[in-house]
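Please fill in the sequence for the structure shown.

STRUCTURE ENCODING:
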């Protein structure tokens, strides 16, 4: 089946940059639930940062096929391993779908989004695409101010490697973007290889 949305947009790539490490390429392209993969590294928890209505920007419009400034329902969370923030994530769907097809998204509280996505045969997923995020991206700000990653705080122009994909349920798109914090890659480097490859 041809996927109806262009998740790549202008800057996102289906194939990670060749210069990236093997670990970067692996985590930016791993299918399945990210929270499940993270659980091999420790106890995973979810901290909800914000749930709100926001207007779609040009990049989101291309990714989920809506007009500019369409009202979206957005959920921003931090994923933690053993209480240490390692990933910041941003999920959006058109506001109307958050009241119908994706209404369960509003009731997740601190449960991971994966609880909705990987147990429903009606849900399909686009290819994963990745790119480095600069300081003007919303998730970069979350890394600085909400996750308080020390490297991002000290070097505010540091790039964050992120991945995203679109989930589709009965024609309704849900765009999920996940950015790995510098402390995630540091933690990965000190983790036994068997756990890293789980």
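FILLED IN BY: designer on duty
SEQUENCE:
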């Amino acid at each position: 089946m041809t996927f109806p949305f262009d998740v790549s947009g202008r800057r996102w790539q289906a194939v990670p940059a060749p210069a990236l490490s093997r670990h970067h390429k692996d985590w930016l392209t791993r299918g399945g639930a990210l929270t499940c993969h993270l659980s091999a590294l420790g106890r995973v928890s979810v901290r909800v940062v914000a749930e709100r209505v926001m207007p779609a920007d040009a990049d989101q419009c291309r990714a989920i096929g809506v007009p500019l400034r369409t009202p979206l329902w957005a959920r921003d969370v931090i994923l933690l391993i053993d209480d240490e923030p390692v990933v910041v994530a941003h999920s959006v769907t058109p506001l109307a779908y958050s009241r119908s097809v994706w209404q369960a998204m509003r009731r997740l509280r601190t449960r991971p989004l994966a609880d909705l996505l990987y147990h429903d045969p009606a849900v399909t997923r686009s290819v994963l695409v990745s790119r480095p995020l600069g300081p003007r991206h919303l998730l970069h700000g979350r890394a600085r101010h909400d996750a308080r990653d020390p490297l991002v705080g000290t070097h505010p122009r540091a790039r964050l490697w992120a991945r995203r994909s679109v989930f589709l349920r009965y024609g309704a798109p849900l765009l999920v973007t996940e950015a790995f914090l510098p402390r995630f890659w540091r933690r990965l480097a000190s983790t036994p290889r068997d756990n890293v490859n789980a």
